[in-house]
């Protein structure tokens, strides 16, 4: 029996993880479920899974659960409690599915404790990839990608010679505005931008897909996960989201991983690679699909993808700034404070205002992150 701690249990990835767990009760049990504010969703999950612990990182949300959890389920509050449970000897695996750099402390605690970590939270690696992967190497933690493209790359690499890899190619759906006249993008609403054509995801990543900031973050994520230099990393638009990624080898062979777009597949693979677990996702029927399409990424339409070329090749502080400014701008757009086109423009301005600095310690990471968030607020308020 594998005992899981699910960070971000109340979110999209968290709930899909719970779905996989409930399909295989003989294999998985919940040590802890961690949410932030959604106490009602947490109550529902706790009733289904009966974890040893429920943690709400928000104090008021924890108070709302007081006296309401099923018998035997203990309640805690705050990020420190989440980190302790993620690192506990009673946790075998951690599903890292909080959104944003806020997920870094608890995920890093799990990595430092040598856990198997299913990594959905890409912002962790974008913010602190070097520190994170070095910690995994020291502790022996297995960091298993959950992000669909990275889970695909992982599957295309298994059993193959890493030195023979010439290219890692991530697919990008192009989001809801792939074919829209760019001059109309100034006026799109958060409701339009969050409506992803293929995936049902949380609000932040859905907006990131619309700006293609998601793919930009994923290139940085791939760099750390697979130790691939920027010149071997690329993305290609694939509107069907059926091919999730490809790996090219020096003999010209290209391996791809295909599946219907449903996160339960990469989640289950991260929980147990082989023998594979049934997930309940729809079977891929290529005869019915008919054709798959691919096109180059248009950097003029998606300026985030031009920006990341520079970020990937610069100091680590650039990717911290890139992520933090995007988190602030993405939230400001969702709150109606800025327009859609202002999101990436804000990130670009923040990048130009913050000097590159060497980043070695976690304290330095948080300092750069805080500076970038403050400058992003200044840019938004100007
Ligand atoms: N959804 C998807 O299909 C995919 C997601 N990912 C990545 O996985 C991560 C989660 O995405 P997704 O599930 O869509 O996001 P959701 O918004 O659906 O869920 C986010 C989760 O994080 C919690 N949370 C929010 N803010 C904080 C905070 N400040 N501190 C601690 N916890 C917090 C939420 O708690 P609550 O709701 O209780 O407030 C919720 O449990 C992201 O990093 C995303 O990029 C990667 C690939 C695919
Ligand atoms: C499901 C998943 O992994 C998302 O990151 C997805 O890739 C988003 O779609 P885009 O390709 O539109 O960014
Ligand atoms: Mn992805």
Structural overview:
Its cofactor is Mg(2+); Mn(2+). One of its GO terms (biological process) is isopentenyl diphosphate biosynthetic process, methylerythritol 4-phosphate pathway involved in terpenoid biosynthetic process. Catalyzes the NADPH-dependent rearrangement and reduction of 1-deoxy-D-xylulose-5-phosphate (DXP) to 2-C-methyl-D-erythritol 4-phosphate (MEP). The mean pLDDT is 97. The chain folds into three domains: 2-146, Rossmann fold, CATH 3.40.50.720; 161-260 and 283-299, no CATH class; 314-382, Rna Polymerase Sigma Factor, Chain: A, CATH 1.10.1740.10. With 382 residues, the chain is α/β, with parallel strands linked by helices. Strand 5 (93-96), helix 5 (104-112) and strand 6 form a beta-alpha-beta unit. The protein is globular, with a radius of gyration of 20 Å. Helix 6 packs parallel to helix 10. The chain is 46% helix and 15% strand. Bound molecules: NADPH dihydro-nicotinamide-adenine-dinucleotide phosphate, 1-deoxy-D-xylulose-5-phosphate and manganese (II) ion. NADPH dihydro-nicotinamide-adenine-dinucleotide phosphate (NDP) binds at residues 8-14, 35-38, 57, 97-99, 102, 120-123, 147-148, 199, 201-205, 263.
């Amino acid at each position: 029996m594998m005992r899981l701690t699910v960070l971000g249990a109340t979110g999209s990835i968290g709930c899909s993880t719970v779905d996989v767990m409930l399909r295989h009760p003989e294999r998985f049990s919940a040590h802890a479920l961690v949410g932030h504010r959604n106490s009602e969703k947490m109550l529902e999950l706790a009733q289904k899974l009966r974890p040893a612990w429920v943690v709400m990182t928000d104090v008021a949300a924890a108070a709302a659960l007081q006296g309401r959890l099923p018998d035997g389920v203990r309640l805690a509050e705050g990020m420190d409690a989440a980190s302790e449970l993620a690192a506990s000897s009673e946790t075998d695996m951690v599903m890292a599915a909080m959104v944003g750099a806020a997920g870094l402390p608890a995920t890093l605690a799990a990595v430092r404790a040598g856990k198997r970590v299913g990594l959905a939270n890409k912002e962790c690696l974008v913010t602190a990839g070097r520190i994170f992967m070095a910690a995994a190497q020291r502790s022996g933690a297995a960091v298993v990608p959950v992000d669909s493209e990275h889970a695909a790359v992982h599957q295309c690499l298994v059993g193959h010679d890493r030195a023979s890899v010439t290219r890692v190619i991530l697919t990008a759906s192009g989001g809801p505005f792939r074919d829209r006249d760019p001059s109309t993008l100034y006026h799109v609403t958060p409701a339009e931008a969050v409506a992803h054509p293929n995936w049902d995801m949380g609000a932040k990543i859905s907006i990131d897909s619309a700006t293609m900031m998601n793919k930009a973050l994923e290139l940085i994520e791939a760099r750390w996960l697979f130790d691939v230099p920027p010149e071997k990393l690329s993305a290609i638009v694939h509107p069907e989201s059926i091919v999730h990624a490809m790996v090219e080898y020096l003999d010209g062979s290209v391996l791809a991983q295909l599946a219907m777009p449903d996160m339960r597949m990469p989640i289950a693979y991260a929980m147990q690679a082989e023998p594979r677990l049934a997930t309940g996702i729809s079977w891929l029927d290529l005869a019915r699909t008919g054709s798959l399409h691919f096109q180059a990424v248009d950097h003029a339409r998606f300026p985030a993808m031009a920006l990341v070329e520079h970020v990937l090749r610069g100091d680590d502080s650039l990717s911290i700034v890139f992520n933090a400014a995007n988190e602030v701008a993405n939230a400001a757009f969702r709150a109606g404070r800025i327009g859609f086109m202002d999101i990436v423009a804000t990130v670009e301005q923040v990048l130009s205002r913050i000097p590159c600095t060497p980043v070695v310690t976690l304290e330095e990471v948080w300092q750069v992150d805080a500076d970038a968030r403050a400058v992003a607020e200044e840019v938004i308020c100007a």
